[in-house]
Design goal:
Radius of gyration: 67 Å
Number of strands: 2
Order of helices and strands: HHHHHEEHHH
Largest sheet: 2 strands, antiparallel
Helix content: over 70%
Strand order of the largest sheet: 1-2
């Protein structure tokens, strides 16, 4: 097909650079190639469908049985054309023996074709049989006649257009498989990387939880230790206070026993250093009572003396 000049740069050095770069890492240019080839195939399929519609509109309708017999003849024509094209290719390459074997197969197919054409001729009138029954090639969208000779069939199936579309379709299928494999591999790599990231995140979460648990345990241990220290200090304070009380009691007992051993009224009393407020009040009341008793005694003695002096005066007067 005449597509005009290619807009891309064709350079052997760039091609070599591309091949070297593909070995180092996957550039994934197969997607661009698939899109480029699919455009050719889509255009060919579109032209094939248009040609089929045109044939339906222009050619006379035939029964299903006659159409099946005509289809058989078309298939045998295609087989003959493909075999002849292959034989010519082998002959050009110098492989004469293989070319002779293919020509023998062509003769067998031709005999089958004659039988199929005879059945097709007997199934329809002679006037309609002489009409050219066309068919659209499914590979390159070209028209094929039912009564084409072997030379034209060989030229069609061995032509550059037909072989070029065969090569494009085969290359497209291979590229699609390659793209699917690479996409699957890439998806697996993504899943693997995702699993690795998730695994790392889980490990990080575990380490964080462990560190948090350790910090909590450390705080708990510190609080327990603080409580223990507080309890120990409180117990020590209690012991100290109880010891001080016992010592105070012992001191009081000793001082009291010393005061008793010295004797006397004041000896039985506790020292002023260890006297309580009640003892002091009692001592004051005792002193007051004794002073009052002394005063009463003095008054009584003074009255007795005055009485005595009065009696003496009376006695002197009487005398």
């Amino acid at each position: 097909m005449d597509l005009g000049e290619c807009a891309k740069t064709h350079d052997l050095a760039l091609r070599a650079d591309y091949e070297i770069a593909c070995k180092e890492r996957d550039l994934f240019f197969e997607l661009d190639a698939v899109d480029h080839l699919e455009s050719f195939i889509a255009d060919c399929d579109r032209r094939t469908e248009l040609a089929k519609k045109r044939l339906v509109e222009t050619q006379d309708e035939i029964s299903a049985e006659v159409a099946a017999k005509a289809e058989t003849v078309h298939e045998l024509n295609e087989e003959i054309g493909k075999l002849l094209a292959k034989a010519e290719q082998l002959g050009a390459e110098g492989n004469v023996d293989e070319a002779q074997k293919i020509l023998q197969e062509v003769e067998k197919v031709r005999s089958r074709k004659r039988d199929a054409e005879e059945e097709y001729r007997n199934s329809m009138p002679a006037s309609s049989f002489q009409q050219q029954k066309l068919r659209v090639c499914e590979v390159c969208s070209a028209y094929l006649g039912l009564h084409d000779n072997d030379r034209r069939l060989a030229d069609h199936f061995g032509g550059k257009l037909h072989l070029g579309f065969i090569q494009i379709r085969e290359k497209l299928e291979a590229l699609k498989k390659t793209v699917l494999e690479k996409q699957e591999k890439r998806n697996q790599d993504r899943l693997k990387r995702r699993e690795e990231r998730e695994k790392e995140e889980r490990m990080k979460m575990r380490t964080r939880s462990r560190s948090r648990e350790r910090s909590r345990e450390h705080r708990r241990s510190r609080s327990r230790e603080h409580r223990r220290r507080r309890s120990r200090s409180s117990s020590r304070e209690r012991r100290r206070s109880s010891n001080s009380r016992d010592q105070e009691r012992k001191r009081r007992h000793r001082s009291h026993s010393r005061s008793r051993s010295k004797g006397g009224r004041h000896s039985h009393e506790p020292s002023s250093r260890h006297k309580s407020s009640r003892d002091r009040s009692r001592e004051r009341s005792r002193k007051r009572g004794s002073s009052e008793r002394r005063q009463d005694g003095r008054d009584q003695n003074g009255r007795a003396d005055s009485r005595r002096t009065d009696d003496r005066d009376r006695n002197g007067r009487d005398r």
